[in-house]
Amino acid sequence: QVQLVESGGGLVQAGGSLRLSCAASGRTFSSYNMGWFRQAPGKDREFVGAISWSGSSTTYADSVKGRFSISRDNAKNTVYLHMNTLKPEDTAVYYCAAGPMWSRTFYNYDYWGQGTQVTVSS
């Protein structure tokens, strides 16, 4: 099993940047595909991006493409979400997830972190 803990959230002004980290426990971290999701108040959970177990492939939601990027460091058991040119509509709780499939849908992920709040002010 994998336990995930997100960090790096906070309050940032529109146009600014943040880097979220997802630290994983477990010896098989490198075998998992990783995804990032977010959920704003009153809205459904939304796909943000995903990265393959090797880090060689990534995919992103259209709403963040060109602004966000995902990377992973398997030696450190950590995956990152780099967020640039943040907008108020990016405000949400951000979750990382791990699963056997490289997927854009939440139900294909088996393990979830507790989330970290990102608030973008105008």
Structural class by secondary-structure content:
mainly beta
Content of β-strand: over 45%
Number of strands: 11
Give the assembly state of these chains: single chain
Helical region count? 0
Low-confidence stretches: none
User: Rounded to an integer, what's the Rg over CA atoms?
Assistant: 13 Å
- Largest β-sheet summary: 7 strands, mixed
Instruction: Give the overall silhouette.
Output: globular
Q: What does the average pLDDT come to?
A: 93
- Gap between N and C termini: 40 Å
Helix fraction by DSSP (H/I, runs of at least 4): under 10%
H/E topology pattern: EEEEEEEEEEE
Question: Which secondary structure elements does this structure contain, and how are they paired or packed?
Answer:
Elements: E1 3-7, E2 10-13, E3 18-25, E4 33-39, E5 46-51, E6 58-60, E7 68-73, E8 78-83, E9 92-99, E10 111-112, E11 116-121
Parallel strand pairs: 2-11
Antiparallel strand pairs: 1-3, 3-8, 4-5, 4-9, 5-6, 7-8, 9-10, 9-11
Q: What does this entry look like structurally?
A:
There is one protein chain. With 122 residues, the protein is mostly beta strands. Helix content is 0%, strand content 50%. The protein has no helices and 11 strands. The strands form 2 sheets. Strands 2, 4, 5, 6, 9, 10 and 11 form a 7-stranded mixed sheet that branches. Strand 4 and strand 5 (46-51) form a beta hairpin. The protein is globular. The N and C termini lie far apart (40 Å). The relative contact order is 0.32. The mean pLDDT is 93.
